[in-house]
Structures are given as structure tokens and as C-alpha cells.
Amino acid sequence: MTQIMQARAMCKSYGPVRVLENVDFELDEGEAHVVIGPNGAGKTTLFRCLSGETRIDSGTITLSGSDVTALEGWQRVKSGIGRSFQVARIFGGMSAFENLIIAIETRERNKNGLRFSLRHLAPRKAVLEEAERLIGELGLEHTSDDAAENLSHGDKKRLELAMSLALKPKLLMLDEPTAGMSPSDRAEAVRLISQVRDTYGLTLLLTEHDMEVVFGLATRLTVLHQGVIIASGQPEEVRADSRVREVYLGQH
Amino acid sequence: MIDYRARFRINLAIALCGLAVFAIVPFVANSGLVFLAGLVAINIVFGLCWNFLFSGAGLLSFGHAMFFAAGAYGMAVVSLRMPELPFFLGLAFGSACGALIAMIFGYIALRRASGVYFAVLTLAFSELIHIYITKTTFLGRNDGLVGIPRPTIDLGPWVLDLTSATSYYYFIIVAMTIAAFALWCFQNSPAGRLIQAIRQDPLRTAFLGAGIRGWQLTAFVVSGTIAAFCGAVMVPFTQIASPEIAVWTVSTQPILFTLLGGAGHFWGPAVGAILFGAIAYGTRAMQGLSDITVSVLLLTVVLLIPGGLLGLWQRRRRKAGGRQPGQAGDDARPGTAAGKVEARQ
Amino acid sequence: MYDVGMTVFNGLAWAMATFLVAAGLTLIFGILHILNFAHGGFFMIGAYVSYTVMIALGGALPLWLYLIGAMVAGVVVGLLGWAVDMLVFRRLRDVDDAYSLIATYALLLLCGGVVQLIWGLNYLGVMPPPVLNSVIFLGDMFMPTYTIFIILCGVLVYVGLELFIAKSQTGRLIRVVAADPWMAQLLGLNVKRIYLFTVILSFALAGLAGGLLMPNQSLSPELGGIFLLQAFGVIILGGMGSIRGAFLAAIVLGLIESFGVYFFPQYPGIFFLLALAIILLIKPEGIMGREQTA
Q1: Which of A63, A74, A75 has the highest number of chain B CBs within 10 A, making it the mutation to test binding with B?
Q2: How many cross-chain Cβ pairs, B to C, lie less than 8 Å apart?
């Protein structure tokens, strides 16, 4: 199995607080890798460092074999990452449709260069069709012309997922995709995420709190505790690991 | 779904209507008013390009006078010191001066500063340019450069004589219509959409794979170039480039136009500039009265009707006739009109 | 040696004159998080009011009457501050930064208009009191007494403000509100009243500064803008809201400006702007450290 992402000896501190200490992390192509850990374990920081939202203090990160440690987030996106945020980030003043158009156009610009011409001020036909297809696929038809800031919590999360999919990434990074959802919405979200994973053949990297979501999605689990990885492997192995039971599952 | 074609046609029609109205002015008004109308036409585009930066990219500039002055002095230098060069080269040179300044200062200011810091840095840069002009003999120091000729343009078989104020006035309104519409096209192109997206959420846009600072700089340079173009077009009309057009109060003019007219709407600054011209004309006899009128109006707008006049009008219309479909992109959104421009670190 | 001494002296003069204006500006910014463009305008009104008082009392005045003129200016402008807080600042709480910046600019414009309407466009001026209109020789340095007086005033205002904020009951309340208005509200403090007090104090300082600096200026409706830019530079460099920072920044910028002018006398007014831009690029949060998101 080939590795899509590999991090070696990552360290990150905020001021005097050491959040990640000497973390090694790898991500195999095609897996659904979930990072769990108690609050304050450094999940979100790990996520930020891997996606490029913040720089690591030392260590290296490679993406499909090339070193991206020094690259900013938007440059890493170009080599095939899509990501979501804990609180869905969308363009609140625009409709869901316009949100998607921007995502698709940005991808096209990065791939082939989107030339400026008077004839193509409006989005091209292919872009419009793709946006409509994504809207249908993620069940956002009913949002039509509403400004995205007025959408429901679940719709915002779905829209953000749709924007990430529009980038046609190889690797999709989701930061707590079901945060703040009701149990029934969670089940629906899990179904949707596994569905897009199958249709697009994606590699997934998630952080998650909810155990049902974790075991519903994960093909591999990594447990982070106080900035250190204490276990990583098949969900069943990790579940059986005594240290993990002690620091994490024991609390539930 | 948004009808992009209809949007294009409507805005082209608005631009052409504006052109038509301004074209009638010389037939119905005296030369003083024609002069004022010419300045208003220039102010409209000056306001539009500032608002492109403010509402389009979420950057608050308090230094647009530096671009305006750069364009004006660029044009003045070419036509006085190198009279053999064609007129259009002067315009191009003036605009290029603005673009260059925008590139240098924008690169510096956008590196670390945002929000209020950005505003004050642009103010400081603009003041630097102002002082530089007043101390440089080549640029005429405090007296400015005077006696700038209006051109005659040789177009092969035709010769366009723009030496009279009225004929140059026509040149102005055509040039400004083109500039305004070009700006509209840029704002509604894929690049303009992306810049708009950056204003709404920079981090999200970055994780779509777009370099934020590069695009913000692009917006700054586009806005600066058009402001410089306005300055360059104005100079042969007034026939003087004086340091007064580089003073920081000039930078605040487009802010007034935009806020009065409505920041959330592309043509807001145009409404504001015309209103501002009317107020200045109506109160010209009384010292200080025009400042008082404008400031009270401005305070009213900021405190009570943040959408400006066009925002007010649109709200009225919506109340009367229900929501207009397909206008989502043109709506005034007071709450988000400025974006949250503070540092997002 | 003579040159260095004189240059430092000039730098301090620039610094303290600017600090007098910046003190009130940084106070409002620290508490209300409003960058108040109108400060320059009310400074100017203070100068005009004190001018009017002095002319009414007969022109060339003894020192104490000149000081009373400045005090009157402080009180008048402080009262204006009360009105401004009630009518404008109070409504800017939920408004976007950019919009509140523009609202205060509208106030500045209003000040300019009112001054033109009442006092006209002509340059006005008045001589400093005779005591302050002489020169002291120190070695071969000559120092105008008026300039020495302004430097003293700057230091006095700084020390006074520091003591007030650090020691007094009201000062403590102001610090609490500046740190966390939400928490202060929760603790039952009357936040509105503390805001109001801050605004009045800030405006009174602007009026006082106008009155004190007036004899050195020719009064014109443009006066507001001139000091405002310098004061902006000072409070931004000082770390937005920090009085000590503003004091230090004023001295740093004043010295840079005066040494710059000493070496390149043809470009006055350019060096503090250059220094400001360069320092902000290296250290965008200002010289007093803490990152402020207003």
C-alpha cells in the first residue's frame, strides 16, 4: 500500500505550551484514518499542522512523496488535499450554488489556468453543470437562492463537504464532521461520508469525538494523548489496547 | 439559479444611461456646471474603484489620493516635459505610475497589516507621496505643474480636437464609462468572484487552493491603477496638477461617495458622487456649510441606514414588491458590507 | 555636540506636542476600541476656544490667564465629548470597525465645517504669554521657553495619567473594563458610565492640548489633520491603547524625525512616516507588545 502522507518528528508549541511532541504520522492511500483523543490532546493542532493552516516548529511533512513542510495551506491544497473545519466555513453572503462555483473555478484555475476573457465573465457551462450536479448529490436543492449564512447547521456542513469535493482531492481531511449534530443527523452524516468515499475513491483523515461515528467510519485509528501518539492500528486492536482503555475509553 | 446574462445587460444599460445623462449636460447647463459634471464623472469612477477594494476585497484604504496624484502627475509630466509623445501614452504612463505605487506599497502593507492597521498604513504612505511631491522641484513643489494642454488626437483619417473644455468633457465621460464598465466586468469575472470570497472568509478561500495575499494585492493594484487613470484623465481638464490632490482629505472623498450611495451596491459610489457634487454646488456660497451637510448625512448613513441610499431604495422596493429573484449578488448587505476587517490572526 | 543637543531638544519638543494630542486618542482606543479620527477636530476646536478666550481677555496675557484659557478649552471640549458619546459613540458598539472609523471621520469633517462657519477660513494667531516668549541659553544652545514649557506639559500629563490609571479607584475600574467589558458588566459595573467618563476625559485632554499648543500655531481649519497624523503614528506604534507605549513611541518617532530633518533638512515630516512603516513591518503589534485586535 502506498503512503499518501507522511510526517516525521513533528513538534509544535504555542508559546511555552508544547502541544505536539515528536509525532510520527502516516496515512495510507484509501484508508479512512480517524484520530481520536481526549480534549486538549492536540487533535486539532495535528490537523492544522498537516493541512498547513499552521507551521510546525520542527519535523517534516511529505505529501505523495514530495516535501511540503515549508508550503502554506493553499499550496498543499494544490497537491490534492481538501479540508473542512470544525465550525463549517462557507461564504455566508453567497448562495450554496455560488459557493460551489467559486470552489470549482479555483480548482480549474489551479489545474489549467482560467483565462480572463470578456466572453467568459459568467461561469462556464461546464462549471454550472458541475455545481448543479454536486448540489443534487449532496441534497442541497432546497437551498436554491438563500444566502448560505441562513442555512441550517447540517446544510452548512454538507455545503462545505461539497466544496471540498469540488476540488477533486485525493485526500479529504474532515475536522469533527459531526460536531454539534443530533444523533439522527450523525448517522446520516456517516452514511454520506462513506458514500462519497466510495464514489470518489478518497483517502479520509478525520478527527472525531463520537464513538459511533468513529467505529462506523474508521479503517484505522490513531490515539493522541497529551501531544503523543499512544496507539495506532485497526480499530479492534486499538480498542483492545490497555493504555488506550486507561486514558481514553476508560472515561466513557 | 442566477441569470448572469441579464445581470450583464442590466449593468451595461445602467452604464449607458449614465453616459447619456452626462452627454445631455452641455446642452442644458452653463460652462461652470459642465466643468462640475466632468469632475463628478471622474469622481464616480474614483469612488467605484475604491469601493471595489472596500466591498469587493474587504480592504479599507485611506490612501487613494496617492494613486490619483500619481496618475495626475504622471500625465502632467509627460505632456509638459515630453510634449512629442502621444496623449494616450500619457494616460498609460499615469496609470502605470499608480499601478507601480500600488504594487510596492500594497506588497509592504499586506505583508503583515490588516484592518485598521492597513487603513492607517495606507494613510501614512499617501502622506509620504504628498510630502515628496511638495518637496520635489521636478514636480513643481507647492505650486504644482500648471498649463497642461488638452490634446488633439491624430487618428489617421480623422483628427480629434479635444482642446476645448466641452469636447474634452465628452472624452471624459466616454473614458469614464469604459473604465466603470471594465471595473464591473472585472468584479463579476471569476477573479472578482474569488476576491469577493476572500473578503467573506480568507481561510476558507485559502483551503480551496487560492493564495490570499496575491489576490488581495491584485485587487489593490487594479483599484490603484483605475484611480490613477482617473487622475490622469482629470489633469488636462483642469490643466493643473497641484499637490492638493495628494492631500489625505482627497483619499476620504471616495469613502464619502461610497457610504452615501451605498457600499453594498456596485453603483452606490456613483449615486454618492452625484449627490456630493450637488451638495457642494448648492452650498458653495456658505463657508463650511458643505462640510457640515456632508458630515451630518454621512453620520446618518453610518448610524441609521448602513446600506446607503441605494440600500434604502432597494429595501423599500422589496417591501413593496416582494423579493426580486436573481439579485442575490447585487443586494446591499449592511451587516457584512465591510466584512469584518480586523486582524484575523 | 551642540547639534546633537539641539536635535534631541527638537525631537523631544515634537514628541511631547504629539503626545499631548495622542494621550486622549490612545485612551479612547484602549477602552472603546474606536480609532477616533475626530480627535484632531476636537483638538482644533480646543485651540479655537482658547484663542477666543484669550482675545476676549485682551490678547497678550500673563501665564496664569493663558493656562485658564487652556482649561476652559478642556472643559468645553470635554462637554462636547459627553454629547458625542451620547449621540454617536454609544451607537457604534455593534458597528463594523471600518464603519466606526468612517463615522469618526464624519465627526472630524463636522468639526472642520463648524470651525469654518464660526471662525472663518483666515489664519488666526496669538502670541504666547511674555514669560514663555523668551529664550534660555545653555552653553551655546538656545531653547525657547515655550518649547520647554510644552515638554514639561507632556511629561506632566503622562505622569498624571499613569498615576490616575494605576492608583485611583476610577482608574482601576477603567482597567477592568478595558481588559474585559463583558466580565465587568457581569460583575455589576456600570460599563456605560465608565465609557462615558473615558470619552469625556479623552476629549478634555484634546481640548487642553489644543489650548496649550495654540500659541505656537497659526490657526486654520486644517489644523486638525496635521497633528492627527502624527498622533495616529504614535498610538499605533505604541501598541494601540497603551499610554506608556504612546509616550515611548512619541519620543522614538520624535527623535527619528528630528535627526532625519537634521541630515536631510529638505524633507521635514517624512521620516516619522517612514520609521512608522518600517517598524510596523518588523513588529506589527507595536512596541508595547501585546497583540490588539480592536
Answers
A1: A74
A2: 140
Q: What size, in residues, is chain A? A: 252
Q: Hey, of B11, B207, B266, B344, which one would you mutate to test binding to chain A, going by the most A CBs within 10 A of its CB? A: B207
CB–CB of B289 and C113 under 8 A? Answer: yes
Residues of chain B with pLDDT under 70: 1, 112-114, 319-345
pLDDT of residue A251: 53
Question: Over 60: is that where the pLDDT of A252 sits?
Answer: no
Q: What is the reported pLDDT for C229?
A: 84
CB contact under 8 A, B207 and A120: no
Q: Is B255 among the domain residues?
A: no
Q: Is the pLDDT of residue C294 over 60?
A: no
- C-beta atoms of C102 and B255 within 8 A: yes
ipTM of the complex: 0.89
Tens digit of each residue's pLDDT (9 = 90 or more) over A137-172: 888 888 767 888 888 888 888 899 999 999 999 999
| Separation CA B214–CA B193 (nearest Å) | 15
Packing angle, helices B212-238 and B64-81, rounded to 10: 50
Query: Structurally, how many domains does chain B consist of?
Result: 1
Q: What is the DSSP letter of B52?
A: I
Domains within chain C, CATH numbers bracketed: 2-282 (1.10.3470)
Residue type, C150: I
- Asked if the C-beta of A163 comes within 8 angstroms of chain B's C-beta atoms, the answer is yes
Residue for cell digits 465587568? C184
**C-beta atoms of B288 and C97 within 8 A:** no
Cα–Cα separations (whole angstroms), residue C189 to A211, C83, C153: 45, 22, 33
For residue C241 the three cell numbers come to 491603547
Residue C75 touches partner B, C-beta closer than 8 Å? no
Rounded Cα distance, C110 and B280, in Å: 15
By Cβ distance, the residue of C98, C270, C284 closest to B128 is: C270
Q: What phi and psi, each to the nearest 5 degrees, are found at residue A76? A: -70, -35
What per-residue confidence (pLDDT) applies to A154?
84
B181-203 confidence digits (pLDDT tens):
999 999 998 889 999 999 999 89
3-state SS assignment for residue B149: coil
Please say whether the beta carbons of B236 and B168 come within 8 A: yes
pLDDT at B331: 37
Contacts of B120 in chain C (CB under 8 A): 35, 232-233, 236
Beta-bridge mates of residue A222: A35, A232
What pLDDT digit, counting tens, does each position of C82-110 carry? 999 999 988 887 777 778 888 898 999 89
Nearest Cα residue in chain C from B113: C284
φ, ψ at A19 (rounded to 5°): -95, -40
Nearest CA in chain C to B300: C103
B340 belongs to a structural domain: no
Does A207 lie at the interface with B, CB-CB under 8 angstroms? Answer: no
- In order of start, what are the domains of chain A with their CATH numbers? 3-251 (3.40.50.300)
Chains touching chain B, criterion 3+ CB pairs below 8 Å: A, C
**What range defines the domain where residue B209 resides?**
4-247
C83 lies within 8 A of chain B by CB? no
What residues in C contact B262, CB-CB < 8 Å? none
Say what the pLDDT of residue C2 is: 63
pLDDT digits (tens, 9 = 90+) for A12-52: 888 888 888 888 988 988 899 999 888 878 888 888 999 98
Interchain contact C271–B (C-beta under 8 A): no
Query: Which residues, 6+ apart, have CB-to-CB distance to B127 below 8 Å?
Result: B248, C229, C269, C273
Helix axes C145-167, C169-179, angle to 10 degrees: 80
Decide if pLDDT at C244 tops 60. yes
Tell me the chain C residues in contact with residue B116 when contact means C-beta distances shorter than 8 Å: 35, 97, 101, 294
Q: Mean pLDDT throughout A184-200?
A: 88
